[in-house]
């Protein structure tokens, strides 16, 4: 698993939490991915990390709690998506999956493995179809699935296909021979194009699965909406869900769907929802309105504050009557002053205020 990126686009959230540990429905995203690996029968995981690895190590340890074996390889300087694989070459003994650490998907890895065993190419790349492929890496293939071209971020009108690289690969060990050691190498831009240029068979595996790249705040919020609506299957009850659900049932101000962690407190006159996720021990003051937002643990919202389409990291305090504009991202332990108004798209970090994004 590639979990070494700095997650710059998710700042200020990633100043305090590395991207793979950002919570999805109150559980670190990487733990969700580990579950998917486990379900596919995978027990040995190498985490190619670099940025804030200690948070990952502290949570997962050696993996025994999950009945898995987790090895950490920490990069001193980022080696890129292929360089990270070359760096763990001595730990790879056979065909292996590569997963980008920021993709939320319902892809069935066991089915992907069966497909690879039939195709028998040097590798299999998961693709999905999107309405606008221009921000992504397009992958062109023939009717048998054999890949003929990679086109990075084409202008919309010139995109050769609507199928994009979805960030999950199943590769034969031989592919490591194409990656130079000791420098930053991109698998999408360097290794894959080189592999097909020398005539090796790399195959595409297109599915209609749910897929989203969590790397941007708006995608992070969209992912939560999709889990709450059931579009992304994550076994969440409809309506009010989570360990704190009981406290909220019968509350007149809850607009479903709402997911709440343990020990949340929502004053009777507050309005929470729709599409709100509250972390553990969040408190929402009287008359406050919170819509379409994700709060991590211990977020405190003062009376009469208004928050719409925002992400608020752990320990932050929103003062009474503050207004948080749409698309804002509030970092760990930040305090927004009473009656302060944040413009839409504000990003407020632990010490600096970056407005708007
Ligand atoms: P941004 O800074 O917001 O672009 O995020 P990012 O640094 O995570 O980059 P990107 O989203 O392109 O990375 C895709 C995946 O590859 C993520 O899971 C990253 O953690 C991972 N990744 C990116 N670069 C490296 C690297 O140099 N080494 C390792 N081990 N992983 C990487």
Secondary structure: elements and pairs:
Layout: E1 2-3, H1 13-16, E2 23-24, E3 27-28, H2 29-39, E4 44-49, H3 53-60, E5 69-74, H4 80-86, E6 96-99, E7 103-105, H5 109-119, E8 123-129, E9 137-141, E10 147-152, E11 163-171, H6 187-197, E12 202-206, E13 211-213, H7 217-229, E14 240-241, H8 245-248, E15 258-260, E16 265-266, E17 271-272, E18 276-278, E19 283-284, E20 289-291, E21 294-295, E22 300-301, E23 306-308, E24 311-312, E25 317-318, E26 323-324, E27 329-330, E28 335-336, E29 341-342, E30 347-348, E31 353-354
Parallel strand pairs: 1-4, 4-5, 8-12, 14-15, 15-18, 16-19, 17-20, 19-22, 20-23, 21-24, 22-25, 23-26, 24-27, 25-28, 26-29, 27-30
Antiparallel strand pairs: 2-3, 6-11, 7-13, 8-11, 9-10, 30-31
Helix pairs in contact: 4-6
Guanosine-5'-triphosphate binds next to β1 and α4.
Name some characteristics of this structure.
five-stranded parallel sheet, Spore Coat Polysaccharide Biosynthesis Protein SpsA, Chain A, about 20% helix, UDP N-Acetylglucosamine Acyltransferase, domain 1, about 350 residues, binds guanosine-5'-triphosphate, 2 domains, alpha/beta
Strand line-up in the sheet with most strands: 16-19-22-25-28
Oligomer: single chain
- How many β strands by DSSP? 31
For this structure, the CATH topology of the largest domain is: Spore Coat Polysaccharide Biosynthesis Protein SpsA, Chain A
């Amino acid at each position: 698993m590639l979990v070494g990126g700095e997650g710059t686009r998710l700042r200020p959230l990633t100043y305090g939490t590395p991207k793979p540990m950002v919570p999805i429905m109150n559980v670190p995203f990487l733990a969700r991915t580990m579950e998917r690996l486990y379900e596919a029968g995978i027990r040995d995981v190498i985490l190619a990390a670099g940025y804030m690895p200690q948070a990952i190590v502290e949570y997962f340890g050696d993996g025994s709690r999950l009945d898995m074996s987790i090895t950490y390889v920490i990069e001193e300087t980022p080696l890129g998506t292929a360089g990270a694989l070359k760096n763990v070459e001595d730990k790879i003994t056979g065909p292996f999956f590569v997963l980008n650490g920021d993709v939320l998907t319902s892809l069935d890895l066991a089915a992907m493995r069966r497909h690879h065993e039939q195709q028998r190419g040097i590798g299999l790349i998961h693709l999905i179809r999107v309405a606008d492929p221009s921000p992504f890496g397009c992958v062109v293939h023939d009717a048998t699935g054999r890949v003929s071209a990679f086109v990075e971020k084409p202008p919309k009108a010139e995109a050769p296909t609507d199928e994009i690289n979805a960030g999950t690969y199943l590769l034969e060990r031989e592919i490591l021979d194409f990656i130079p050691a000791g420098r930053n190498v991109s698998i999408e831009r360097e290794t894959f194009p080189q592999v097909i240029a020398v005539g090796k068979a790399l195959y595409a595996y297109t599915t209609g699965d749910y897929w989203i790249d969590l790397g941007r705040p708006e995608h992070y919020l969209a992912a939560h909406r999709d889990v709450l609506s059931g579009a992304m299957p994550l076994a969440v009850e409809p309506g009010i869900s989570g360990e704190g659900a009981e406290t909220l049932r019968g509350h007149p101000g809850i607009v479903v769907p709402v997911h709440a962690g343990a020990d949340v407190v929502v004053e009777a006159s507050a309005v929470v929802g729709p599409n709100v996720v509250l972390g553990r021990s969040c408190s929402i003051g009287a008359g406050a309105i919170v819509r379409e937002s994700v709060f991590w643990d211990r977020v405190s919202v003062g009376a009469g504050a208004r928050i719409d389409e925002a992400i608020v990291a752990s320990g932050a305090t929103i003062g009474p009557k503050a207004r948080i504009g749409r698309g804002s991202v509030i970092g760990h332990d930040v305090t927004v002053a009473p009656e302060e108004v944040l413009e839409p798209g504000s990003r407020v970090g632990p010490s600096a205020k970056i407005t708007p994004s």
